[in-house]
Amino acid sequence: MKIVNATVIITSPDRNFVTLKLETDEGIYGLGDATLNGRELAVASYLNDHVIPCILGRDPFQTEDIWQYLYRGAYWRRGPVTMAAIAAVDVALWDIKGKALNTPVYNLLGGKSRESLLVYCHATGKDIEHALEDVARHRDLGYKAIRVQSGIPGLENPYGIAKGPGNYEPAERGLPSEHAWATEPYLRHVPALFARIRTHFGEDLHLLHDCHHRLTPIEASRLGKELEPFDLFWLEDPTPAEHQESFKLIREHTTTPIAVGEVFNTIWDAHDLIRNQWIDYIRMSVVHSGGLTHLKKIADFAALYQVRTGCHGATDLSPVTMAAALHFGTAIHNFGIQEHMPHTAETDAVFPHHYSFKDGFMHPGNAPGLGVDLDESLAAKHPYQRAYLPINRKLDGTLTDW
Ligand code: EZ4
Ligand code: CO
Fold first, then answer.
1. Alpha-carbon distance 254 to 286, whole Å?
2. Exactly one of 122, 212, 213, 294 is catalytic; which is it?
């Protein structure tokens, strides 16, 4: 079998998605997600201008060799643009392989280690009362694990909070908006939020919280400690992780489990975090971490250190990535949890799929390959629209992490 055609399809049903379609001489095609929130066109160009000419004519079964060819052959290694482009090729190849062998991708990655995957959703509210209402709504939808974020007194529109009813979407069309951030009121507020949630909902719900990289290591240590009585499933992105050793300080101060990795691209971003057991969950995603070929190796490495997966699953990861993550999580031994931020009906219509949600768990479906398709004529009706994530500044104007 040979790859004979490759197309990059950009669509924006409600937000931007970049998809690679690889076609073979036997009529089988595969899909890979190449979406990089706010930098979509850079990955599209990387694929169109630099990758596609090199892979035409190759054997789509050679997932390992093609991965190494794109990673080592580029000379310039790593980085989100490169790794998203490699992921798109890799995932499309696994999709082709599954379809050619008439089996779901999870069977190619080790077969079923479980029947379905525990997922967590996002509950948000402009204040504690509204956050409690949103937790109740998600619990009633069947979720067993809920990430909770709430507005902070004195801060308008902090990142991670839905602006109104309906699905939350962090990317905004147009140029980036800017929001104020202050750590002191945040640190005072979050323990109160979780105290109220536990009083209200009892001990059974798994509760998670995302700090969006906004704390220093010692601030994160304090927060982790103060949250211990509320038994969090994890505290996510407590501090930026470019300097991996920052997590040592947090680890020495708190037993609240720590998750990180949604912005990582390769194993080298997590190597120290994992081998020193400074984290409990590695959140790298299929699309931003070089595809299934690389993420499988990362999961196997993490397993040696009792670190489990908690793959990023926000709406900026397309249904192709959600399908790939579910096949992956079905097969690996050290699966922990999967993030689930449901796509809108418009996005689901562009990407018809076989995966499903029921009673707090997701299942990849049993269709050959990934079990996700792209309606190209519908996709063409939704052209790209410039969009960015918001920017955060401290009250004095200093730019901060988010
Ligand atoms: O900010 O996906 O855990 N989920 C998150 C997401 C990320 C966005 C960035 O593109 O933190 O909402
Ligand atoms: Co996050």
1. 29
2. 212
State yes or no: pLDDT of 246 exceeds 80: yes
Please say if 159 is a catalytic residue: yes
Q: How does residue 160 score in pLDDT terms, banded at 50, 70 and 90?
A: confident
**Residue 369, pLDDT score:** 99
Whether 314 is in the pocket of ligand 1, judged by its Cβ within 6 Å, is yes
Give the tens place of pLDDT for each residue, 357-386: 999 999 999 999 999 999 999 999 999 999
Ligand 1: centre distance to CA 390 (Å): 11
Ligand 1: centre distance to CA 238 (Å): 13
Beta strand segments in 237-364, E: 258-260, 281-282, 308-309, 338-339, 356-358, 361-363
Sign of CA dihedral 171, 41, 339, 250: negative
Token pair listed for 98: 């599954």
The two three-digit tokens of residue 24, written as one number: 């073979």
Taking the C-alpha atoms of residue 314 and residue 131, their distance in angstroms, rounded to an integer, is 19
Residue 81 corresponds to which tokens in the numbers above? 């643009």
Q: List alpha helices for 35-182, DSSP H.
A: 40-45, 52-55, 63-73, 80-101, 105-108, 128-140
d(CA 152, CA 169) in angstroms, rounded, equals 19
